[in-house]
Design brief:
37% of the residues lie in helices and 21% in strands. It has 15 helices and 23 strands. Keywords: NAD, Oxidoreductase.
Length: 507
């Protein structure tokens, strides 16, 4: 595994860093085991309370200097980070694939997302614009501008161990913020690798120590971040349960949060769909990353006139899936992240049966040569009702539920009839159906697609969802505003002091 050496990954790594400096911590040891083969890849040391406070103090101090750098100069540093990621795309993509378990192509794709968001942020560094407004008072000018917030806390999940961090970090940096990253304890080595890459670029550009910080750890470190008044913004990706607890903690201190939580995404398959195109979109959406994406397709809502035909196409396609080592590009599906995830997968299948689901493609755990880790499972398909409790729940595994509809209104109601609201799609060549799906009476999700699946968002658009998905927005469009504070300014260049609303205050 030469990619570990290329990324400066050692059998044991410090897990707390203020940039190029690594702190000695008395925190617990976190071991990383690959779901690919079950082997131990390395270890990191989690932050203890002392080193955590050292990191935050350093990030606060660095902010006071970093915010004074011109935004285009900050953007130039981020451009160089993107170039460094291009250099390390192959070994970092392999590490993502090996430590997390997603296919190698998806691992490379995740690093490409990092590169893309750096490119986006470079341009953004020259476009942090405000507005000019007309004042009601003569010889006055009004405008608004945006200022950096301070320290941005980033809590990321195992399924995208590096990309989601980059969405936040690249924007936060060009906006003038510093960042403190807590990677998932299930993929700690990805955090180590990225920290080394960024530190080299920052050091070359004399970026203040503390602009890019790393704090490895579990739930306790996440709780320190969520309660810390020195961190005005916390961006967190994970379960709805986690997000609710974090949101309460951050709101209690009047901080801000960006939440990217659970998804229960559906594709509507219209009678007017291109069924071959729909098949590819549904297949990747359902089994990509072994069903461990927040944008994974978990429900197919199929028109009754094409239901049986499409179901048979889908069953045949599932029979052609190759499950195995994700570093082998011939395989379509890799393992689940760990055996706890496997247990939840099996539990969900059992609950689905008890609630009345009928499986048309059976699930199960794979064993034998190549499956020694015990984390490889079969993607499965079940016919179910949208109101089954298990269907209303997000299961982070490759379980796909099928259901029928008659009218487009009924299909949209089924699509919207879950607590989550992240991603959605309709496959149709009917313009009226497509426009209705995108209208006020259509999808209630943060992402709504026509003739593509629910997965694979580009960085140019803002990413996020509604309802129990949290309402946050990251990545493209004007998501940068979440990392800054708005300020309205009024300038009086007259010799008088008139008051607004015509109020007179004469002595």
């Amino acid at each position: 595994m030469d990619f570990l050496e290329k990324l400066s990954i050692q059998p044991a790594n410090a897990g707390v860093s203020t940039g190029s400096e690594w702190l000695k911590s008395k925190g617990e040891r976190i071991d990383s085991y690959s779901p690919v083969d079950g082997l131990k890849t390395g270890s990191v040391t989690a932050a203890d309370e002392h080193t955590y406070n050292q990191v935050i103090d350093k990030a606060v101090k660095a902010f006071h200097e970093w915010r004074m750098w011109p935004a285009p100069k900050r953007g130039e540093v981020v451009r160089q980070v993107g170039e460094a990621l291009r250099t390390f795309k192959e070994p970092l993509g392999k590490l993502v694939s090996y430590e997390m378990g997603k296919s190698l192509q998806e691992g490379y794709g995740e690093v490409q997302e990092m590169i893309d968001i750096c490119d986006f942020a470079v341009g953004l560094s020259r476009q942090l614009y405000g507005l000019t407004m007309h004042s009601e008072r003569p010889l006055h000018r009004m405008y608004e501008q945006w200022h950096p917030l301070g320290v941005t806390g980033i809590i990321s999940a195992f399924n995208f161990p590096v990309a989601v961090w980059s969405w936040n970090a690249a924007l936060a940096w060009v906006c003038g913020n510093t960042t403190v990253w807590k990677p998932s304890e299930k993929t700690p080595l990805c955090g180590i690798a990225v920290q080394h890459i960024v530190a080299t670029v920052f050091k070359k550009n004399q970026v203040p120590e503390g602009v890019n910080c790393l704090v490895q750890g579990g739930r306790n470190v996440g709780e320190w971040i969520s309660h810390d008044t020195r961190i005005p913004l916390v961006s967190a990706t994970g379960s709805t349960r986690m997000g609710k607890a974090l949101n309460v903690a951050v709101a209690a201190r009047l901080g801000r949060s960006i939440l990217e939580l659970g998804g229960n995404n559906a594709i509507i398959i219209s009678k007017d769909a291109d069924l071959d195109m729909a098949l590819l979109g549904a297949l990747f959406g359902a089994v990509g990353t072994a069903g461990q994406r927040c944008t994974t397709t978990r429900r197919l809502i199929i028109h009754e006139t094409v239901y049986e035909n499409f179901k048979q196409k889908l069953v045949k396609a599932y029979g052609q899936l190759r499950i195995g080592n994700p570093l082998d590009t011939a395989n379509h599906v890799g393992p689940l992240i760990d055996k706890d995830a496997v247990a939840l997968y099996l539990q969900s299948i059992e609950q689905a049966r008890e609630q009345g689901a009928r499986f048309v493609v059976e699930g199960g755990v794979l064993s034998g040569p190549g499956y020694e880790s015990g984390c490889y499972v079969k993607p499965c398909i079940a016919e179910a009702s949208n109101d089954f409790p298990i269907v209303q729940h997000e299961t982070f595994a490759p379980i796909l539920y099928l259901m029928q509809y008659r009218t487009i209104d009924e299909a949209i109601a089924l699509q919207n009839g879950v607590p989550q609201g992240l991603s959605s799609a309709i496959m149709t060549l009917n313009m009226r159906e497509a426009e209705q799906f995108l209208s006020h009476a259509g999808s209630d999700c943060g992402i709504a697609n026509i003739n593509i699946g629910t997965s694979g968002a580009e960085i140019g658009g803002a990413f996020g969802g509604e309802k129990e998905t949290g309402g946050g927005r990251e990545s493209g469009s004007d998501a940068w505003k979440a990392y800054m504070r708005r300020q309205t300014n009024t300038i009086n260049w007259s010799t008088q002091l008139p008051l607004a609303q015509g109020i007179r205050f004469d002595l």
